[in-house]
Every structure is written in structure tokens, then in C-alpha cells.
Amino acid sequence: MKRKDILTPIGIFIGLTMVLFGIYTNGGIGGVSSFIQASSILVVLGGLIGAILINFSLKDLKLTFKVFKEAFRSDNYDLKGLIQLFVTLSEKARREGLLALENEVDEVEDPYIRKGVLLAIDGIEPEVINDIMNAEIVAMEERHQRGRAIFQKAGEYAPSWGMIGTLIGLVLMLNNLSNPETIGPSMAVALLTTFYGTLLANLVFTPLAGKLENKTDEEIFLKQIVIEGVIGVQSGQNPKILEEKLSAFLSNEQKNDLEEEEEKEQQFVGESVNGL
């Protein structure tokens, strides 16, 4: 289940706020206005867009907005619920056979889990199931890598175009050395393009690429748990052993929470039996 990730916009907002605060405290309103230069912005953004258009195909560029939105959304992974799902499937498979899982599959929303369980029901060998599902992970990783490559390249190109803008400003300044009073302001304007390029790279593009890479790692981690769960169900592992095996993917805190939940369930069952 996807939900809004407020950390991304908050991080960008805090970064911009601190930059503006640093400028304002040292130069007031006039200092802030001196950092706004249309020509410098156009050089950085124009050069950056041109380089991206050259580097990527139209197919890759169409993914940009879709991938960009993913950086502002997060997946609510319920690892404990996932483990419990495979424990339940394992119990039913051992009790009634793998074919009895067909009814359970219809209630599973995740297509990757559903595919794995269907492969297990079809009697596919564990090694083949592992190969098929890992191939899907590799394909997914490749798609995600192509999607975030635009932001990675933008993070590389932005400072370079900032430097190009600075060089343009320096050349124009050196051509007008007859008036020494203009050297300082001209140098400030020239340096603004480097400022814009560096700011975009380190506050927007590179962090977004890192965020997307972390999301891919989380999804791969989740899918690895699914593979272990499917193979465990298919091979008829004892549900308790399967639970212990899958619990290895949990953090110590998550393991403690899972143990507490199991203790509460056992206590509730015991109280219910005594009540009867």
C-alpha cells in the first residue's frame, strides 16, 4: 500500500530555507535579491535540459515524471504480516495439500506473491521457482535503474553547467576590465551559475536518485523474503521452522514485537479454553 512520503518535500524545504536564511542573515533582503539572476538560471537549466535530451531516449524521458512521483511516495511494508501469511499457507499446504492453496491465492493482492504461490501449486521444482522469481527481480532492478538514471545524470551535469556559466561570465568580465568598479558585481554574477548548479545537484537531483535507489533495495529485500516463503511452502517445511527462517529477515525490534504478539495469541487461546 502506497502513501505520501512527507520526508522528501520536508528535506527540500529545510535545505532551501537554510540557504535563504544564511543569505538573509548576511545581506538582508538585498542579499537575497542579489542571488536571483535570470541569465544564470537559464544557462544552468537550459544546458541541463539539453544534456539530458542528448543522453536519453524519448522512452526513458517519458518515465521521468512517473519516477519523480515515486520519490514522494512510500510503500507500507508489513514484514510481520508477510511472514504470517506464509506460515498460514504452509500450515494449510501440509494439512490439505498444495492444491488447497488455490482459494487462498485469490485473496493475495501482491502479484509477485501470487505468482510464486501459483508456481508452487503447479509443482515446479524449488530451483526453477528460485530462478524464475530472481529473474523478475533482476528485470525490476534494471527498470528502476533506468528510471533513476536521469536524476543521477542530472546530478552530475548540473554542477558542470554551473561552471560553464561561470566561465562565460568570467570571459565577459575580462573583456570589460576598463571599468574596475564592475569587476566585483560581474564576478558575483558569474559565480551564481555555479551556485545554482551545485544547489540543484546536492539538494534535488542526487538526493532523489539516492531515495529511489533505497526504495529499490527495499523492494528487492521484500521479494527475497517472498522467494524464501514460497520455496518453504512448496517444499513442505514445518510452519514453525519456516517462521524462524523468515524471521531472520526481521530486525531485533520486529522479532520482539512478533514474539509478543504470539504470546498474546497463545494467552488468549489459553484463556478461551479455560473459559469453556
Automatic annotation (TrEMBL):
Membrane-spanning ranges: 7-24, 36-58, 154-174, 186-205
Record's subcellular location: Cell membrane
Record's bilayer topology term: Multi-pass membrane protein
Start and end residues of each MotA/TolQ/ExbB proton channel domain: 106-220
UniProt region (Disordered), positions on chain: 253-276
GO cellular component: plasma membrane
Any single biological process term in GO: chemotaxis
Transmembrane keyword on record: yes
Keywords: Cell membrane, Chemotaxis, Flagellar rotation, Hydrogen ion transport, Ion transport, Membrane, Transmembrane, Transmembrane helix, Transport
Pfam families: MotA_ExbB (PF01618), MotA_N (PF20560)
Residue stretches making up the Motility protein A N-terminal domain: 10-97
Superkingdom as given in the UniProt entry: Bacteria
PROSITE patterns for this protein: MOTA (PS01307)
PANTHER family listed in its UniProt record: CHEMOTAXIS PROTEIN MOTA (PTHR30433), MOTILITY PROTEIN A (PTHR30433:SF2)
Family statement drawn from the similarity comment of this UniProt entry: Belongs to the MotA family.
Protein name: Chemotaxis protein MotA
Native source species: Salinibacillus kushneri
